[in-house]
Write a structure and sequence with these properties.
The protein has a single domain, classed as 3-Layer(aba) Sandwich (Rossmann fold), CATH 3.40.50. The chain contains eight helices and ten strands. Strand 7, helix 6 and strand 8 form a beta-alpha-beta unit. The longest helix has 16 residues. The protein is globular, with a radius of gyration of 18 Å. It binds adenosine-5'-diphosphate.
């Protein structure tokens, strides 16, 4: 669905944030990008969304170069990257309605709100929402135009354990519907439980990939140990 081949990206003249980074996310799978703060996870997601242009290398979405076709590609991608910004004085429905008008689509706003667990909010302004409610609204906005690929940057941040569990089950059901998810986190346990593949981003590239089928049941402990060792740069 989306493929990075040997991608390098630097901001201004700094050391590259990504260097010779390659990864491939098959259609209908959940790929969890794990790395320390500052590892380049958001940068990678912005490149995938066509918000940034790679310095070298290529990113393809369904075999189309992303940057050159970004307007076309963005119709099939839903993203939640960076802190979501809303019209604070408007309700969730009004915010989604405006987004829909902008995207020239007409998804089912009430259905999407229900899907992300934002019910009983009536016409409350977004300014009265908790952090978790804002996260859900941002995910609803990303889903509104029925994208094939979802790019989510730290979606579990700031949620309580119940909220994390609810989002995890939402992401699993989206994957079952056939959507492809590329999700970042700096907290290991958060997304590993729902991912098909976990990629460790370190030193500018995917240092190692874990295929979660290989770590069922008791293998989970070994998985966590191996991931932490990779993140610390230990040789096992
Ligand atoms: P992560 O999402 O893993 O925390 P980021 O992709 O946000 O990592 O950032 C990677 C590095 O790039 C950090 O050192 C950050 O300071 C730097 N960076 C991110 N965005 C910019 C920008 N717009 N201009 C300059 N440096 C940036």
């Amino acid at each position: 669905m989306i493929k990075f081949s040997d991608v390098t990206k630097a901001y201004q003249t700094d050391e590259p944030v990504l260097a010779h980074c390659s990864l491939s996310v098959p259609e209908g799978s959940v790929y969890a990008l794990v790395g320390k703060n500052g590892a380049g996870k958001s940068t990678l997601l912005k490149l995938a969304a066509g918000f940034l242009c790679p310095d070298y290398g290529e990113i393809r979405f369904q075999d189309m170069p992303v940057w050159e076709n970004r307007e076309r590609v963005q119709r099939d991608i839903g993203s939640m990257i960076d802190l979501p910004v809303f019209y604070e004085h408007l309700s969730a429905r009004e915010n989604l309605g405006l987004h829909q008008a902008y995207m020239q689509t007409n998804g089912n706003i009430n259905g999407i709100l229900k899907k992300v667990g934002l019910t009983g909010i009536n016409d409350k302004p977004v300014s009265s929402f908790s952090y978790g409610m804002r996260q859900r609204l941002a995910i609803a906005r990303a889903l509104l135009h029925e994208p094939k690929l979802l790019l989510l940057d730290e979606p579990m941040n700031g949620l309580d354990p119940l909220g994390v569990e609810e989002l995890r089950s939402l992401f699993c059901s989206l994957a079952r519907e056939g959507k492809t998810l590329l999700v970042s986190s700096h907290i290991l346990g958060d997304i590993a439980a729902m991912a098909d593949t976990v990629g460790i981003l370190s030193g500018g590239s995917i240092r190692r990939e874990f295929h979660m089928n290989d770590y069922q049941g008791a293998g989970k402990e070994l998985f966590e140990k191996e991931v932490l060792a990779e993140m610390k740069g230990d040789i096992l």
